[in-house]
Amino acid sequence: MSLDFREKNAIAKQLAGDIHLEKDKKLLGRYLPQDRLLFRTASASRPDLSFDIIFLLLDFTSKENILANRESIVSGPTVIDLTKPTESNRSSKPAVKKKSQKKKSIPKLNGPGLKKLKSEMLTRSTQIGSIVTGACAILIKSLK
Q1: How far apart are CA 123 and CA 117, in angstroms?
Q2: Is residue 117 in a domain?
Q3: Which of 29, 47, 52, 133 is most buried, judging by how many CB atoms fall within 10 Å of its CB?
Q4: DSSP line for 12-76
Q5: Residue 134 lies in domain
């Protein structure tokens, strides 16, 4: 594939999602079986795994092939819809839905906002350091 950075970035953003992560990993394994992305797991602290895999896949295959791979492979256990009662999953208690994890967005600062934040953090650190130094001095005096 000969896509430039912007095209690959836009497609990767569009297709990224942990729901298809295993299928995308299998496809990447066909092209690069020892790539480090295959051994990484998705986590809240690193939510970009799916994006990274798709971005790399676009060097070897097209968007259409990625989508076709997602539709053709059936992996994992069969999902049972607990919202519709059937004979096998009826119970006296209603189904409990898990809360979905919301990704926290961290604002990116640059320019004057970043300088102000750095200045405030430095001031706080200096104040805390002074308090700790004073407390240590008092403790040492009391030990003599």
Answers
A1: 10
A2: yes
A3: 52
A4: HHHH--GGGHHHHHHHHHHH-TT-GGGG---BTTBTTHHHHHHHHHTTTS-HHHHHHHHHH---S
A5: 111-144
Last residue of a domain, one of 72, 87, 119: 72
CB atoms within 10 A of CB 27: 21
State the CB neighbour count (10 A cutoff) for residue 75. 7
**The two three-digit tokens of residue 124, written as one number:** 């706080």
Task: Please enumerate in sequence order all residues whose Cβ is within 8 A of that of 70, keeping only pairs 6 or more positions apart, or say none.
Answer: 20, 23, 24
For residue 103, count other CB atoms closer than 10 A to its CB: 8
138 to 8, 44, 98, 125: CA distances (angstroms): 61, 43, 52, 20
Nearest to 76 by CA among 20, 17, 15, 16: 20
- pLDDT tens by residue, the chain, 144 residues: 578 899 999 999 999 988 888 999 999 999 999 888 888 888 776 778 889 999 999 999 999 999 999 888 554 444 445 455 544 444 455 555 555 566 666 666 666 667 777 778 888 888 888 888 888 888 888 887
Residue 144 falls inside a structural domain: yes
